[in-house]
Amino acid sequence: MTEIEPSVFTKIINGELPGRFVYRDDKCAAFLTIEPLRYGHTLVVPLKQVDKWTDLDSETWLHLSNVSQEIGEAIKTAYDTPRTGFIIAGFDVHHTHIHLFPTEEMAEFDFSKAMAADATDPKAMDEAATRLRQHLNTDENGYRLS
């Protein structure tokens, strides 16, 4: 069996690359994307690297869905938006990930309007992570505080 190259998400999860974590448990992690549609745009990623979400085992998929729902509610509350966007795209990084972001309307579901990594304000990104951690009751590594 051929070993696959670790994805950028695997490297973030393993601490080889920096990440602004808002949630983490024994099956998945959630951290801010460096190219957000809006500040607060979070990725929910299984710890095990699986390319396509349709290849996930049902237990992992259910867990990702439940965590996404919890984080989605935190995003909606933290940003006082009527909805949280939920997208599975999967073409840019070959590691299943769910995009969650605060949204007001369908026009915001457009990746061509995402901020470039070098155009985001680091202070605004840090503030977004802190804001979500407060609503999720997690620490800087994404783990539950109590």
TrEMBL record:
SUPFAM superfamilies associated with the record: HIT-like
Active site residues per record: 97
Chain positions of motif Histidine triad motif: 95-99
Keywords: Hydrolase
Start and end residues of each HIT domain: 8-111
GO BP: any one term: nucleotide metabolic process
InterPro entries: Histidine_triad_HIT, HIT-like, HIT-like_sf
GO MF term list: hydrolase activity
The keyword Ribosomal protein belongs to this UniProt entry's keyword annotation: no
Protein name from the UniProt record: Diadenosine tetraphosphate (Ap4A) hydrolase
Organism listed in the record: Corynebacterium ammoniagenes
Lineage, opening ranks: Bacteria, Bacillati, Actinomycetota, Actinomycetes, Mycobacteriales
